Amino acid sequence: MSGPFQLHQYPVFEEGVFQSNPALFDRFAHFVSPGIRERFRVAWETLPRHEGTVTWPMVIGPGLSAGTHPGADNVFIEVMLGSNSFVYDSDCVYVNPSQRVFAISDPPGISDASRRLFTRLDRRLQEGTAADLEGILNGLHCETSNEDGATLTLLALPENGPAVAFVAGDTYLYHGNLSHRELTVIQGIPEFFGTPHTYLAPIPIQPTAGDFFIIASDGILSIRGNDREKTLAEVLRERVDGDLEGFTLRAIQDSNRCLEESIYDRSVTRFGGSDNVSALLVYPEGLPQAGPRESFILGGYVTRRPA
After folding, report:
1. Backbone angles phi, psi at 57, to 5 degrees
2. Quick one: pLDDT at residue 1?
3. Considering the entire predicted model, what is its pTM?
4. How many Cα atoms sit within 13 Å of 6 on the Cβ side?
5. Chain-wide mean pLDDT for the chain?
6. CA 20 to 30 Å from 123, out of 15, 24, 147, 243?
7. DSSP code of residue 295
8. Cβ contacts of residue 119 below 8 Å, gap of 6+?
9. Which CATH superfamily is 6-304 part of?
10. CA 208, 213, 217: angle at the middle one, nearest 5?
11. Residue ranges per domain, the chain?
């Protein structure tokens, strides 16, 4: 793919991760039934075939990095239990550089509802402009059934005039600045996109020099690992650390690393990422003045996993 914005694929399971972390199997070694233990042992032995074959996508370009991950522990449990023959990432990320519109949506359960939402949004924006986002979004909102409800956090950064945000549900939006080591959360309505009798009001934001924005689905909470004392804002701020370009990759990888935690009287090794994890960082001053016409829709899928 040519142009300033490039699509990259990263493995969910790095090569050798299971051999290096045999304690991951301990969660399944305590079952009394020999038949169940044997089934888990066979599943464990087949896991290396998934190293490098299940991937997650990321878009990187000037002023922007965005990605979505199905969740390492989420995929690991599905494979070990053998309960489903698919991998899913219900989270969906939308990147529209030419109209400077960026969003993440997260529906409950296993669904492609957010991808369908962003496909409809992209069609409307390709036919018109982002000048009437309030009308476009509320029109889509009225057309969305309650069953297809999802979170929606969207940020528009016009070249002239204030930024504007729309926030519905519990997907996070943070406003930060490189000169001030703090992140401020931007609150919207608690109801999901698609909830009847609600309205998405625009939230105006006046960007200043050095501003950046982070959007993340609730799966990003895994980034805290065992350190539950810190707030999410504190942990995300540490990951920014002046390096905006590498933030999203670090944040998503750190959300899915192996960690050790105590459950009752025993220690358990597991992956982070028990939920889909999405993150997007945009730095308005770094965005090109004339972005490419193509848009990117990442995630929002249910697919067969490799046999």
Report:
1. -100, 155
2. 41
3. 0.93
4. 6
5. 90
6. 147
7. -
8. 297
9. PPM-type phosphatase domain (3.60.40.10)
10. 160
11. 6-304
